[in-house]
Design goal:
- By secondary structure, the protein is an all-alpha fold.
- The chain contains 13 helices and no strands.
Length: 319
């Protein structure tokens, strides 16, 4: 028993040591895969809290932004201790608005008014938006492999999300669908803008300030809603769902996305969104809540092919 216990304790040490010795590019791709895994479950988990009105959307994002600001500030003060130049704060404020405030507010407003499947489908526009925004704002080269990869990944994600399920874009869900599209657009703008600062600062430094600025912006609006929240009605499932969103969907995803953005273009970070529905389907298959068929296998092949094509480095010609 003692030997077994020691072996179990050595597993995380082995994983950490292996991760530390990996190439930076491989670490970045593994980080993005972890983000897709976390987000794959987020739509349904967050809706548990919103559907029964335990938290209003603005209450939820106030908790998310403030919790992230506290956690990233602690991490920054302990390990990084890096200062940001005053001239970079205007861009940081824009990153905060698009990456923390608008992005999260419109996600929760949209998810409350529409279904998780509609939200998932609309979010598949994010990689396309990122590619367009990157080309306009930072002149990122648009290659045929990226265009084809995004199209294939989008087709695969759409198949996975809609197969055997009812997709309804009815008029009563129109406002929620629009909110999710604004959320996708805001996230795309954020990824492109924050990339400009990644060469000069550590991701934790940037994300710390993004959420700190976001907390300053959102607190005056969110405090009245938080004061009216009936905390005593929260069941263990609701509490667990809130913790998941605060810790995993907010802290870890922004941290891992930030680390990945140091090594990869925004368009590659965006394409991993297509993995979210695939991962959710794989989890459902493992626990017996779904069945494997040829259409889902095809969708998986399309998604992985799309990720592979978009991930290809841009070839430069030498004179």
């Amino acid at each position: 028993m003692w030997e077994i216990g020691m072996s179990i304790l050595l597993i995380p040490i082995f994983i950490f040591d292996s991760f530390r010795n990996m190439s930076k590019t491989l670490k970045a791709h593994l980080s993005l895969f972890a983000v897709a895994l976390i987000y794959g479950a987020n739509y349904s988990i967050a809706k548990i809290v919103l559907d029964d009105h335990y938290l209003q959307p603005i209450s939820f994002i106030t908790l998310r932004i403030c919790a992230a600001a506290i956690l990233f500030t602690l991490f920054h003060q302990i390990w990084i201790k890096e200062k940001v130049e005053r001239k970079d704060f205007p861009l940081l404020i824009l990153c905060s608005l698009f990456g923390a405030v608008f992005n999260q507010l419109f996600f929760f407003l949209g998810l409350k008014e529409t279904s998780p499947i509609n939200a998932s489908l609309i979010m598949t526009t994010t990689p396309i938006l990122i590619l367009i925004i990157s080309a306009i704002l930072i002149r990122e080269k648009v290659t045929w492999s990226k265009v084809v990869g995004i199209i294939l990944g989008g087709i695969g994600a759409t198949i996975i999300i809609s197969a055997g399920k009812e997709v309804s874009f009815t008029s009563n869900q129109a406002l929620g669908n629009l909110y999710i599209f604004v959320n996708a657009s805001s996230y795309g703008i954020y990824l492109v803008l924050i990339k400009r600062l990644m060469d000069r600062y550590h991701p934790i430094t940037l994300i710390r300030w993004i959420f700190t600025i976001g907390a300053i912006i959102i607190l005056p609006f969110g405090i009245p809603y938080l004061n009216n929240t009936e905390w005593h009605t929260f069941s263990p499932l609701v509490i667990g769902s809130v913790i998941y969103v605060l810790l995993f969907t907010t802290f870890f995803t922004y941290l891992l996305n930030g680390l990945a953005l140091r090594e990869l273009p925004a368009s590659i970070v965006g394409i991993y969104i297509y993995l979210q529905p695939l991962i959710a389907t794989i989890i459902a298959l493992i626990i017996g809540n779904d069945q494997l068929n040829a259409l889902k296998i095809l969708a998986g092949i399309l998604i992985f092919t799309g990720v592979f094509l978009v991930s290809q480095p841009i070839k430069t010609t030498r004179n």
